[in-house]
Amino acid sequence: MTIPTALFYLFSAVLLFAAFRVITARNTVHSALYLVLAFFQASTIWMLLQAEFLSIVLVLVYVGAVMVLFLFVVMMLDINIDQMRQGFWRYFPVAALVGVFIVLEMAAVLMQAFQIGGATAAAQVGGQALTPAAHAAAQIPNTELLGRVLYGAYLYPVEIAAVILLVAIIAAIALTLRRRKDTKTVRVADQLRVRRNDRVRLVKMPAHSQAAAPAAADKGE
Fold it and tell me: Rounded to 5, what percent of the chain is helix, strand, coil?
């Protein structure tokens, strides 16, 4: 067993453990921290697969921005863990079915990728030359190749995903910025139209009250 293979199995084992602890930890902050660990392990696996751009993007975007924001939100919210776990076993069969379906999909994709990789390796071992397109793709850096694939062959799916994310952001803002009854707002137009007589009233008051005068006379006697 080579060193990259051993590192791949090590990082994969830590990744599976962190992913399992994300859904089993009782504390939401601990779950978020385990998710950060899972992202780091996935980044190292991308690095072993020579996908440096995806590895750095995973660390910068998910760990550096999304997970930090999520962690702060979880720490600021007062979440009742016992109340959230009341309906866990009721939805467990549906969650297990969805999980099995996702695992089967990933297994089908990985088996197909292994078959393609095995056929390419066999062609190289057999002395067959690679096609010009495959040779040109091998000479292109990962970042440039990823940009060509995303904004070339998959341009319309990327644009559709961007529109869906924009709609989701607008919906989230509209849901969180609802007008509340206990919110006090100030209208700038009313402040500009205000007059001095509307805000300040001068009241004349005597220097000494009438009740204080007899008291002073009694003290003089």
Answer: 75, 0, 25
Mean pLDDT on 118-143: 57
pLDDT of residue 163: 94
Rounded Cα distance, 79 and 165, in Å: 27
Give, in order, the Cα–Cα distances in Å from 151 to each of 133, 144, 146, 154, 158.
18, 10, 8, 6, 7
pLDDT tens-digit map of 174-209 = 777 766 666 677 788 887 887 777 777 778 877 765
On whether residue 29 sits in a domain, the answer given is yes
- Identify the CATH number of the domain in which residue 27 sits: 1.20.120.1200
Closest listed residue to residue 45, CA positions, set 13, 23, 20, 1: 13
Q: Classify residue 65: in a domain, yes or no.
A: yes
Total tally of structural domains belonging to the chain: 1
Spatial distance between the Cα atoms of 55 and 191, rounded to a whole number of angstroms: 54
**How crowded is residue 15: how many other Cβ atoms within 10 Å of its Cβ?**
19
Q: State which residues form the domain around 49.
A: 1-79
Q: Measured between alpha carbons, how far is residue 171 from residues 166, 177, 183, 195 in Å?
A: 9, 10, 21, 41
**What is the secondary structure of 85-149 as a DSSP string?**
TTTHHHHHHHHHHHHHHHHHHHHHHHHHHHHHHHHHHHHHHTTPPPPHHHHHHHHS-HHHHHHHI
Q: Is residue 163 part of a domain?
A: no
Question: Both tokens of residue 105?
Answer: 């999909």
In a domain, 150, yes or no: no
User: Which pLDDT score, from 0 to 100, does residue 125 have?
Assistant: 47
